[in-house]
From TrEMBL, chain A:
GO terms for cellular component: plasma membrane. GO terms for molecular function: iron-sulfur cluster binding; metal ion binding. PROSITE patterns: 4FE4S_FER_1, 4FE4S_FER_2. This is CoB--CoM heterodisulfide reductase subunit C. PANTHER family: HETERODISULFIDE REDUCTASE RELATED PROTEIN, IRON-SULFUR-BINDING OXIDOREDUCTASE FADF-RELATED-RELATED. Residues 23-54 form the 4Fe-4S ferredoxin-type domain. The keyword Methyltransferase does not apply. InterPro entries: 4Fe4S_Fe-S-bd, 4Fe4S_Fe_S_CS, HdrC_iron-sulfur_subunit, Helical_ferredxn. It comes from the Bacteria. The keyword Iron applies. Keywords: Iron, Iron-sulfur, Metal-binding.
Automatic annotation (TrEMBL), chain B:
It comes from Sulfuriferula multivorans. One of its GO terms (molecular function) is metal ion binding. It comes from the Bacteria. The keyword Transcription regulation does not apply. InterPro entries: 4Fe4S_Fe-S-bd (IPR017896), 4Fe4S_Fe_S_CS (IPR017900), FAD/NAD-bd_sf (IPR036188), HdrA-like (IPR039650), MvhD/FlpD (IPR003813). Residues 531-560, 561-590 form the 4Fe-4S ferredoxin-type domain. PANTHER family: COB--COM HETERODISULFIDE REDUCTASE IRON-SULFUR SUBUNIT A, FERREDOXIN:COB-COM HETERODISULFIDE REDUCTASE SUBUNIT A. The keyword Oxidoreductase applies. Its cofactor is FAD. This is Heterodisulfide reductase, subunit A/methylviologen reducing hydrogenase, subunit delta. Belongs to the HdrA family.
Length: 210, 746
């Protein structure tokens, strides 16, 4: 990675493609892309500034061995899971799933862009939800408000105060949830289930890479 | 044939003709002006009763010429089928009542129109004779196949299976051509997943076992003379002797050469043995298969670990340096060759660099299969290949990531997809294109393939890029030499599956040609036509226009330099008739007189009646059917036009135009097919020649002191159903603007 010339030499060989096929969920589909560009044309986020590479380009970059660029990219995180690309892909690639797979892989390697809002929200949501088996909406919103520091958090919170008061009035928001969240019945069971799922995933990965 | 000429006319009253037209007046016109005394109206002429009436007159009354005033000559051809007599047809239905409104005020002009068509029909039938069939026939049923590749072998086997003997001439020492050099071929059957055996061995043994197929190896054609049904092929054999074979028709399947990769030094060819063309890779693959090992790198014999395929090498080149066209098979071929590597060892990196991947036929499945096997397809344009030691660096512009400086390093092998160059022999029209691309043309091979003993040249004419002339949709196998059919990549670039299909099609056309020749009938597109051109030599001035302009090389010269017609080579288009300045060429049922007398038969109202007359000479293949179809749609068209169908616009003799203008017509419209490189003319050059001749008509018009707008030529396709009536109506409007012709009433 540090040696730039060796990385350049490695481009357009199949090493990164093989890595994606082995490590990324649905990654074995990447080679089937025929570069028609229908996915890129169908993506509703393609007017967003953060959308640095449309799916067609991501697939080409994988084949071109551009590992850093792909895994550092914002693109996969911008996916809204609308499934337009999957519906339209003439080669039937599960593009949405590949995007999520790539995002997940980049995250686990620690290469995903830091402070990427979608990634931040996803982490927050997951950590929030696995504690009690239920999403604590109050904590989740506050976590989002204070993403960019305390001061920005206060500003964000004040901007939303009317909504919060409205919810309070309508008894849709309980401030005590901040201290004691209500959870689901069998929290231990949930934790055991998640642990087991993680084990299975790791085992499968080990078999794939072996 | 009837000794005495007896003419009878029949007028139909069905399909509304009886209600819309005054039949009694029509009968009068036929009797008094058409001078045919035997006229029979019938309420339903194409009924069995009507047809029986006509047949009765022919059988019992000695009628030898009939004129039928009913529907278009293209309609009811099964009912009005009297092969023993000459027949003309006045088009009263599609030509008159279907294009005119059924109103009281239109009644007069409609009746005038019908009367004129009857006058024309009467004039035409009197100038006609019943065709007797070309007496100059040959009855050889043998097919000569030139070239023993996949196309030639398929043609030979298909013809033999149909029961026709075959003579197969192959210049090399073995059958199989390019296909025999292939390690494997692209699959032609489900599931289209992997390369399959090239299939040549089976075909060769089938040919060797077939007593109907006579094979000459190491042989070429020293001379080909004659005409369909009686070609004589002199075959120069290996021993130096010449064998002569009488054949009825010829299939030329002389295939292609790969474009010379030496012209692509920027792609590293010649600089490293590790850069090969697709043919070179097939050889490496066959060597590997014989050895039973992997494909080796030519420079040092090490197994290949990475290979790059460069598509469109020297093809689809817009600069004019290399081939301008796509050869159609190379994408599938490269996919197949990449599979040679992947099927042997999935760890070998195989990359196909393409700009547009084109996989005709079921190639899409084959392409998908290659992707599943891990062949990588990268959309990019290769700039250069730099050999370094035992590997190469391929520099390219990645078109998806728009990276100008993309490259693949350490490629063990680079395969160039160079495309097909046809083996079509001598370009007999070479002089015509001299001047533009002289340098590129000089390199053209000058070895003739057929060595035709024709005045027009030794080989079949070419259309573009050296491929033989044919119409890719309407008549793909027809060349411009009757009885000679081209098939396979000599005709257009193609793969094995297409070549086999091509061979079958061309063989069937060749069989039709020799069968038609045997009965003295024309080949496509006037198949079944028994008329043939005859020339009144006393009047001939030896101007050579007919011999030069015949699109099919049917006319040679005799020792006194008079035109020598080879009727069996003739397609009966009449281009010679249109060309002849002294009008000595004619067909029994189609001549300067049959059309000229129709033109003169039309009654021309005087200048002050405000009834112009417009002559339309319409190609019977496209423009006339388009008019018929417009009539079926009841599209209203001018009542002042008189339409004469012609076999081809090329058969239009300028005397017809002069005659028409002289006798007071206000305008003349000529409707023929599209010409040029994308021609639609059934006789290839007819409409082009007509257009050229008509470009000179302006001088004639000025000589008459007439406006040049009065004679116009139009390109009309069979689909121009709405356009043709509009053209006619606009022309009529223009005639009213210009005013009536001053030549009326002389």
């Amino acid at each position: 990675m540090s040696n730039l010339s060796s990385q350049a030499a490695a481009q357009y060989n199949n090493n990164f493609l093989k890595e994606v096929e082995a490590m990324v969920e649905e990654g074995n589909w990447v080679k089937m892309c025929m570069q028609c560009g229908v996915c890129s044309g169908s993506c509703p986020t393609n007017f967003q500034a953060g959308w640095d590479h449309p799916p067609q380009e991501i697939f080409m970059m994988i084949r071109a061995g551009k590992r850093e660029e792909v895994l550092n990219s914002q693109s996969m995180w911008m996916c809204t899971s609308c499934y337009n690309c999957i519906v339209r892909c003439p080669r039937k690639l599960p593009i949405t799933h590949i995007m999520h797979g790539l995002a997940n892989y980049a995250h686990r390697l620690g290469l995903a862009p830091k402070n990427q809002p979608t990634r931040h929200f996803a982490k927050l949501f997951w950590n929030n939800c696995i504690q009690t088996g239920r999403v604590n909406e109050l904590k989740l919103s506050l976590g989002l408000y204070f993403k960019d520091g305390f001061k920005q958090g206060i500003i964000n919170g004040l901007a939303m105060k009317d909504v919060a008061l409205g919810l309070l009035k309508a008894k849709r928001l309980n401030p005590f949830e901040l201290f004691k969240a209500h959870g689901c019945k069998d929290q231990k069971g949930i934790h055991a289930m998640l642990k087991k799922a993680h084990e299975i995933e790791e085992r499968r990965k080990a078999i794939k890479t072996a | 044939m009837a000794v005495e000429k007896k003419v009878a006319a029949y007028i139909c009253q069905g399909c509304g003709l009886g209600e819309r037209l005054d039949t009694d007046a029509l009968v009068d016109v036929v009797k008094k002006e058409g001078k045919i005394q035997q006229v029979k109206p019938h309420p339903f002429l194409c009924s069995s009763e009507g047809v029986t009436m006509i047949q009765n007159d022919i059988d019992n009354d000695g009628v030898s010429h009939i004129m039928i005033g009913a529907c278009s000559r293209r309609a009811k051809t099964d009912a009005f089928n009297f092969p023993s007599v000459a027949m003309s047809r006045a088009n009263l239905r599609e030509g008159v009542i279907w294009i005119r409104p059924d109103t009281e005020e239109a009644r007069e002009t409609t009746q005038e129109m019908a009367e004129d068509y009857l006058r024309m029909g009467c004039a035409e039938i009197k100038a006609m004779r019943q065709p007797e069939g070309n007496p100059n026939t040959g009855t050889s049923k043998t097919l000569l196949v030139v070239g023993g590749g996949i196309t030639g072998m398929t043609a030979a086997l298909e013809a033999a299976k149909t029961g026709y003997p075959v003579v197969l001439v192959e210049k090399s020492g073995q059958l199989g051509g390019w296909a025999a050099k292939l390690h494997m071929r692209v699959p032609s059957h489900e599931p289209y997943k992997a390369p399959v055996d090239n299939g040549v061995a089976g075909m060769v043994s089938a040919i060797e076992a077939d007593p109907n197929i006579k094979v000459y190896l190491n042989a070429t054609l020293a001379k080909t003379s004659g005409a369909p049904g009686r070609f004589q092929a002199e075959i120069a054999t290996e021993s130096g002797s010449t064998a002569t074979e009488d054949v009825g028709a010829i299939v030329q399947a002389t295939g292609f050469e790969l474009y010379d990769a030496n012209k692509l030094p920027e792609l590293g060819y010649g600089a490293s043995p590790n850069v090969v063309d697709q043919g070179g890779l097939e050889q490496l693959a066959r060597e590997a298969a014989e050895r039973g090992g992997p494909i080796l790198r030519p420079s040092d014999g090490q197994p290949v670990k990475s290979v790059v395929f460069v598509q469109c090498a020297g093809q689809r080149d817009a600069s004019g340096t290399h081939l301008a066209y796509c050869s159609g098979h190379c994408c599938n071929t490269s996919i197949k060759q990449a599979m040679y590597f992947k099927d042997a060892n999935a760890d070998i990196d195989t990359t196909v660099l393409y700009t547009d991947l084109r996989t005709p036929g079921n190639g899409e499945d084959f392409y998908r299969s290659a992707q599943e096997k891990g062949v990588i397809f990268t959309k990019g344009k290769v700039a250069s290949v730099q050999p370094a030691g035992n590997t190469c660096k391929v520099n390219f512009h990645d078109l998806i990531l728009d990276d100008q400086n993309a490259s693949i390093e350490n490629a063990d092998l680079v395969v160039l997809a160079t495309g097909q160059v046809p083996n079509s022999g001598v370009n007999i029209d070479f002089k015509a294109v001299e001047g533009e691309e002289a340098a590129a043309e000089v390199e053209k091979k000058t070895i003739s393939i057929l060595n035709l003993d024709y005045r027009q040249g030794k080989d079949v004419p070419q259309l573009k890029y050296g491929f033989t002339d044919s119409h890719f949709i309407c008549f793909p196998y027809e060349t411009r030499r009757t009885g000679i059919y081209t098939a396979g990549p000599v005709r257009r670039p193609m793969d094995i599956a297409q070549a086999k299909e091509d061979a079958t099609g061309a063989t069937l056309k060749a069989i039709q040609a020799l069968e038609n020749a045997a009965i003295g009938s024309a080949a496509h597109p006037r198949s079944g036509d028994l008329s043939y051109p005859s020339v009144r030599l006393e009047g001939c001035t030896q101007c050579k226009r007919c011999t030069v302009e015949c699109p099919f090389g049917a006319i040679d010269e005799d020792e006194k330099r008079y035109p020598l017609f080879n009727e069996s080579r003739c397609r009966r288009c009449g281009t010679c008739m249109g060309a002849c300045p002294v009008r000595v060429i004619s067909f029994e049922n189609y001549s300067v007189d049959t059309v000229g007398s129709q033109i003169k038969a039309v009654s021309i109202p005087d200048e002050f009646s405000e009834k112009p007359r417009i002559l339309v000479l319409a190609c019977e293949n496209d423009a006339y059917p388009a008019m018929d179809m417009a009539a079926m749609n009841r599209t209203e068209t001018s009542s002042f036009v008189r339409v004469v169908p012609v076999r081809c616009l090329g058969s239009v003799n300028t005397i017809w135009i002069t005659d028409a203008l002289n006798s007071g017509y206000d305008g003349v419209m000529l409707m023929g097919c599209k010409h040029g490189d994308e021609y639609q003319c059934h006789f290839v050059k007819g409409s082009e020649l007509a257009n050229y001749r008509m470009s000179k008509i302006d001088d004639t018009l000025k000589g008459f002191n007439l406006e040049t707008d009065r004679v116009q030529t139009y390109e009309v396709a069979i689909t121009d159903i709405d356009r043709v009536p509009k053209l006619i109506n606009d022309f009529e409007k223009r005639m009213f603007e210009i005013g009536m012709s001053p030549f009326k009433g002389f």
